[in-house]
Amino acid sequence: MFTTTMDTLFMKIIRGEIPSYMVYEDEHTFAFLDLNQCIEGRILIVPKIAVDRFYDLEEPYYTAIFQTAKKLAHALQLAFNPVRV
Fold first, then answer.
1. Is 24 exposed, middle or buried (0-12, 13-18, 19+ CB in 10 A)?
2. Would you call 68 exposed, middle or buried from its count of C-beta atoms within 10 A (0-12, 13-18, 19+)?
3. Vertex 30, ends 25 and 35: CA angle to 5°?
4. Tens digit of pLDDT for each residue in 15-67?
5. Residue 85 maps to a domain
6. pLDDT tens column, 53-84
7. Which of 4, 31, 51, 63 has CA atoms 20 to 30 A from the CA of 12?
8. What's the whole-model pTM score?
């Protein structure tokens, strides 16, 4: 399902070569807890393709990141009751 040959840190995490605590995955995105959290529950959401620049990210990956963020924001609100999400 990976459409890139770039061997980035995030691609290694997605492939399971680097351990992570995955909290959500779909066809286009992978979300996991930040290991160096400055705030409890901080989640990183990455596309399942690698690009050098975010503005080079094509559909449907671009939209999928924000759809995933919206889903996870609600779960974070319920779990941690932060002032802002």
1. middle
2. buried
3. 115
4. 999 999 999 999 999 999 988 777 777 899 999 999 999 899 999 999 999 99
5. no
6. 989 999 999 999 999 999 999 999 999 888 88
7. 63
8. 0.85
For every residue of the chain, DSSP letters joined together read: --------HHHHHHTTSS---EEEE-SSEEEEE-TT-SSTT-EEEEESS--SSGGGPPTTHHHHHHHHHHHHHHHHHHHH--S--
| Residue whose structure tokens are 């070569």 | 17
Q: Quick check: is 49 in a domain?
A: yes
Structural domain boundaries enclosing 67: 9-80
CATH number for the domain that contains residue 49: 3.30.428.10
